[in-house]
Each structure stands twice: as structure tokens, then as C-alpha cells.
């Protein structure tokens, strides 16, 4: 429960807004959504799915508040029904903001569906160049089973070959390589600041580049093999 003493001395309108903000943080899962949009190896398709889920929740809450239903807003239950219209408008503003922010991404929804759920799209709904390969893919029971058992990237990497599905393969490579967030850039910059500190100001650019290459790679360095290639004591 929120600390009531935090809001002592506030006027009624500000107090109501504070209550609404509390519910926004707790029930709208804003922080939860933010966490879902972070982290490594995030595909654009899964990121957009999380955003769309949140938008559906927003529209639900907007309709409920317009009817005076505060089931998802416990701290507003004591307010008058006419106050709910104001907060329903706040939901509407958020819906509009999400629509505007993700408008460009939603324009490629059909292409994302072909990438993320290739077995669920209808062949007649996809561009002509994909239709034959989509039909071949959807009628292959072995591939369908592998799709259900593996991660999306592993499925494309191991079972959608360039020989059998050249167009779908290129399509998958395109969307698998898209940067859905700036997480990778932020992580790289953090490693840069750790590598080049005030105490290592004389670190040369080539050495810094090598350190960052190792630090940002998901492949472990084979120290044993690298050591064998070095001659630590040159012969005289």
C-alpha cells in the first residue's frame, strides 16, 4: 500500500492524479513492459508482440474507466464515476502515443508474421514471391514439429535451408538481424567506458578495439589456442 503521508498537503486534483499514477505503475505494468523490451537477443517480432499486448490492455482499461469500472485501479475506487472519464482520456492518450510511435513498424506486420509465425499465415495473404515456399513449408509435417520444439532462430538456422527455401531464408535473415532496441549499443558503450578509464588513458586504439571485440562477442576466447600461437621467448 502506498504511504499516505507522502500526499499530505496536496490539493484534491493532485491527490487524485497521484493515485492514478500509483495504479499506472502497479497495474499497467509499465515497468514490466520496459523490462520485456530490454535484454540481449531480442527479436523485433517478440518486441512488437509485447507492445501490442500492452496496447490491448490499455484499450480494455479505457473502456472500463469510461463505464466507471475501477477493478484494475484499486486506489481510485473511492472516486466519483464522473472522475473516471478524465482518466479514461489518459488511457486514450497513451494508446494514441503508442500508435504514433510504432506506426512504421506496424506497416511491416505482414512481413513480421511471415517470419515469426510462418505456419499460421495464409499463402494468399503473402506477396507472390513467397507463396510457393510458404505452401511447401506449411505442408512439411517434420518442419512443423521442429518449429514447435525449437526457438525461432534455431528453426531457421537448422532446418530452413537456402537450397530448399532461398526466399524465406533471406527473409528470415533480414528480420533476425534487425535491431529492435538500443540495448546492444548501450551495452557496448558501457564496456567501452570500463575498458578505457582515467587509469588507462594511454590505451591505444588498436588495443582498445581488440578488447571491445572480445568483450562484446558472445563467443568465448580460446585462450589455450591463442597462447600456442605466441612466441613468448624469442630465440637468440
Automatic annotation (TrEMBL):
Signal peptide: none annotated. GO terms for molecular function: protein dimerization activity. Residues 141-210 form the HAT C-terminal dimerisation domain. Transmembrane segments: none annotated. It comes from the Eukaryota. InterPro entries: HATC_C_dom, RNaseH-like_sf. This is HAT C-terminal dimerisation domain-containing protein. The lineage of its organism: Eukaryota, Metazoa, Chordata, Craniata, Vertebrata.
